[in-house]
């Protein structure tokens, strides 16, 4: 049994629906708190119930508006710490600034590391996250971090579709391991698209393809869909190489800018994403399907509280 008292789950304004679904899995009520902005744009947080020596979990994906939701998270951690919480675990299904994990240009910040420092300094004891953009972000933290993967959940969406000649396609060389894991679960071959990104403008062009996709059904996999440029560019090169049908799955539906329209107008038959981020009604399109990670996060929270292995959820 845990050395800490009962589980308490609280949510910021980023994705309260996911927090409620996690609590439904855990069969506990969502913790009562106030999180809002004063008229002067300053954020206020008050935990409205006793958390002394409790095992506190703060659910806050870093969704848009990113900086507001980050500040909410820092203040929530501080409020829980000052209320004498026994242990504070931040549940960040989507870790923003994940692309700024190294100095890939002169005189730039490594913001992913800076966020890790802020979270630790604010008073978090543990981190629970999903499918980080770069694995080395785990090493930016000096506190325990559990990274879950939703690749098995996404794979389960395709196992019963009976798609002939399926090939899993990585959007670039960096996504090859993710594609390999999905292909392994589905028992299919894989292909890799070579792409070029131009500057900081989110402009992506697919330039080559490694693997055989002709007359096959292609399943593009990526960790997130941002502007939609990467997957749309991938779908165009796949069409050029003679695929029959194109599907796409991704963990994090960032869907920034004109992404929804781009995807709706593309030749991708179906796009499956998870609810690590909220998808607003105005961004839902006919070919987009959302599957929930709430049960997976709920199980991980239950295991962390009980002192059990989180890796065992994935056979590790």
Plain-language structure description:
There is one protein chain. This protein starts with 6 loop residues before the first strand and ends in a 10-residue tail after the last helix. It is 28% helix and 27% strand. With 316 residues, the protein is α/β, with parallel strands linked by helices. The model has no long low-confidence stretch (mean pLDDT 93). The chain has helices spanning 16-26, 66-82, 111-122, 151-156, 176-186, 229-240, 259-264, 294-306; strands at residues 7-11, 33-37, 43-47, 55-59, 87-92, 126-130, 145-148, 166-170, 190-198, 203-210, 217-225, 245-253, 270-274, 288-291. The chain has eight helices and 14 strands. The chain folds into two domains: 7-149 and 294-314, Rossmann fold, CATH 3.40.50; 152-291, Rossmann fold. It is globular. A seven-stranded mixed β-sheet has the order 10-9-8-11-12-13-14, sandwiched between helices. A five-stranded parallel β-sheet has the order 1-4-5-6-7, with helices on both faces. Helix 1 crosses helix 8 (294-306).
